[in-house]
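Structure request: DC1 domain-containing protein, Rhynchospora tenuis.
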Amino acid sequence: MDHPSHPAHTLRLELTPPYPNGTFWCDGCGAAGATFCLRCRECSFDLHLPCAAIPQTVSHPSDIHPLYLFYKNPNPNLSYHCGLCHGTIDSFKWFYRCNICNFGGHVGCFAPVQTLEVLSSGLRTQAAPALTPQHPQLNYDAQATNEMNDMLKFQKDMIQVQLELRKQRIVGEIIRGAIRGSRL
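Returned structure:
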């Protein structure tokens, strides 16, 4: 998958994190993950699937202009604050910002409610951030909403597959241990 947050390389779907401890750090939200991820093997760049589905542009009633998703602080000498919750925006996490009036803020304050629900519920076992939308009355066109819903349904299905794979692996380990024990 090509993703604008990492244009140098293609991201590949990994069924399990390839790191020895079995987890990865999402370069989108900064939270740990332990299930499927999109990964660049050359750069060790990793994303949760819902983070990859976050819309590149959103509208919000607080600004007449579109808000664009930024993957890093465009000016490291400036500190940005969320226009909704007024918290400081971590310069290493993604955020939305209007290019005209500099209004914007945390992804969790501006992202679509469906994305936030998956991040805060379906990925809870991955220690993904519990995000609470501040203003759920966002405007999206029907195609973008359908695409996002499809991606989020896919993510939930993939989490179920991942859990089933883990369960089968554990059962296999128990059976192998019982067989080894009976041979002694």
